[in-house]
């Protein structure tokens, strides 16, 4: 009997050179002169052949795998170096675009590592075709998750009593609501998306946006109001400037203060270190409200009814929204607790991603969809997606109430004053 010789080939790539590794196993065995001896030793010889193959093959396989691994390491290292160069180029461009400068020793390199990690996470997310939204680079891309939360998520959940919750917008069976609402198209939202900067004043922006909206709805005048007045003047009890607050208490301040001024006369500074200047501006208050109410909580249909009538402030869980870019956000987030005040200015339905809330944020136009977020609506928990239905609150303003010295009223009063003076001099 003749036993063949087997050749085993291994092909790999090392430093761009193809390397063929091979060995052979010679299984040729000399025939014995006696068939009887062969028969007796058949089992024993078979065992020896098996052991011989094992002793020869295993080391060679191990060597081949090792060389293959080394070759892959070389390729991976090359790719990583190329990718790092690309990421550094993106980082430098991002620094210029966002006006970033780091003073601390080694801070630029430390921020680069955070930027690279965030970019990797963004690209992994966006490569998943099952995601309902896209993430992207923005002004927060050099921050860790903890840094982002500690600076920008300073909203406080409002303390509510039973008397706070009103029936005005409680959804009832048979209520007919529009399929879509967008208060931007109706002129009740200031076109310029405002930015809170490095100040945890989201509560002031959400409250001001709601007052701007209800004022336009009732008077026809869209006036951009001052968040800075709230940051400087509404401090010490429930709201604390850039360190956090709640929209409901901002409404209370505006009511007690007989109105709020425009941001033209009290512009935003992005900090709360200055003393309140509103006392000096008693004659320039332009917008008042009559009160504030709370939408029935944990009820998205009542929230929908409220938004159909006016923009509504809400608290949402926004810890994972720092790099939101577009699409309908469906998590991850907490559905039980909010940490960020925002303003719902509408709702609608996407053919691909389903029902959503249209939310105006205070992180500037470079974040999200031009400063806006579309958040999943009609979620299967009472609190809504990201706790959106947990604490909705809104200002009220009667049609009969007028602005205190609004631009049109001020002109009319001034004209009457001149006429009276003229008559007195005759």
From TrEMBL:
A single GO molecular function term of this UniProt record: cysteine-type peptidase activity
Annotated keywords: Disulfide bond, Hydrolase, Membrane, Protease, Signal, Thiol protease, Transmembrane, Transmembrane helix
Keyword field contains Glycoprotein: no
Coiled coil regions, renumbered to chain: none
Transmembrane segments: 50-72
Biological processes annotated in GO: proteolysis
The Peptidase C1A papain C-terminal domain, residue ranges: 177-396
Domain (Cathepsin propeptide inhibitor): residue spans on this chain: 91-148
InterPro entries with a match to the protein in the record: Papain-like_cys_pep_sf, Pept_asp_AS, Pept_cys_AS, Peptidase_C1A, Peptidase_C1A_C, Peptidase_C1A_papain-like, Prot_inhib_I29
Keyword tRNA-binding annotated: no
CDD domains assigned: Peptidase_C1A
PROSITE patterns, per database record: THIOL_PROTEASE_ASN, THIOL_PROTEASE_CYS
Family under the similarity heading: Belongs to the peptidase C1 family.
Official protein name in the record: Cysteine protease
